[in-house]
């Protein structure tokens, strides 16, 4: 009974560990928090009781079952989040690495209580101590993970960085697994007990510092990316401003010559030469409309964005049909709206480029309905080739989910809306709804 209870407490550490795995995934969860918690309890509690009973019956060390279980339990975790595989692995391995430290301190506590025992005879007191300490560690990491690190999970899409994080966490995880004291008499030799505690404490501090440096470093990367996006937007606005200046210079000449046109029209009217009047007016109208910047909306940043991608579409030989209606003021921040439309138009133009130039088309419609809903509908043609996962489209440019579609969905959900992508044959559709 004692062995079973000790093993059960040991396996119950999976509960605070599971909670830690979801801290940074609050925007990447497939199900609601309540449903995810219920699924975790439904899987982990029976699993803990079953494995502890197996350890008690076979009289084997808990770690013989627990360590392989970590590999097995990753797969249900992966199925409950939408983040990419590198991000899931980085979070999962990181949590496992951190949770090995309460286990090591529990072994030290057990060695203090039972100097002549060993890891294979882990006591109930030490198992309870480990469970409490694991909950304390999970609680300590809750605020920085939920308040800070989730932004990195949402925004940082560089797999190499995540794989490097996995490697660092694995070093600490493997070291602590290897360093489990099989016989407590070894750590009671000389000053080994003190050195063991000091080493574990220092390693925990070093791992925490590494995670902190990782956060600071990735924050700089994300800030640089945001600054780059700001710069790109300013370049688009500058281009729009130059186009407006060119138009003003051209129309200034037309306005200056207008009195000559009036005299000419008066003379032609006196002669009754209606045909010449029409010809002159048509030429004047053509000159007036030449290079006139299109005003898509009242917002300067979005207007520049639409103008930039319209020029890109025209240069790519894409037949465009856009009808833009946006509320004033905008229902989102300017940057979120720029990100949404920028990803939407870039994806559509990239899709059009996969078909022959004479067959390319891109339709974009935005309209306000019911006074409090903004609907965005995008349709473009493409070559018909897609990579689709269980719940989302995957990028055809790289491994993993399509970053543009993910960003569109995140922007829509942030403001209580929704985004849905679909395709039919060689047509790709994106439907977005935002609350305004």
Largest sheet: 5 strands, mixed
Number of helices: 14
Roughly how many Å is the radius of gyration?
Answer: 32 Å
Uncertain parts: none
Arithmetic mean pLDDT: 82
Q: Report the sheet-strand fraction.
A: 5-15%
Structural class: alpha+beta
CA-to-CA gap between the ends?
Answer: 61 Å
Secondary-structure element series: HHHHHHHHHHHHEHEEEEHEE
The dominant shape is elongated
Q: Determine the fraction of residues in helical runs and give it as a percent range.
A: 55-70%
What is the topology, as strand order, of the major beta sheet?
A: 1-2-3-7-6
Secondary structure tally: strands? 7
Model description:
The structure is a single chain. This protein has 436 residues and is an alpha+beta fold. 67% of the residues lie in helices and 10% in strands. It has a five-stranded mixed beta sheet with strand order 1-2-3-7-6. A hairpin with a 2-residue loop joins strand 6 and strand 7 (427-435). It is elongated. The mean pLDDT is 82.
Quick synopsis:
By secondary structure, this protein is an alpha+beta fold. It has helices at residues 2-11, 14-23, 33-58, 62-78, 85-113, 124-140, 142-155, 159-178, 184-187, 192-271, 274-289, 300-315, 334-352, 403-414, and strands at 319-323, 361-369, 373-381, 387-388, 393-394, 418-424, 427-435. A hairpin with a 2-residue loop joins strand 6 (418-424) and strand 7.
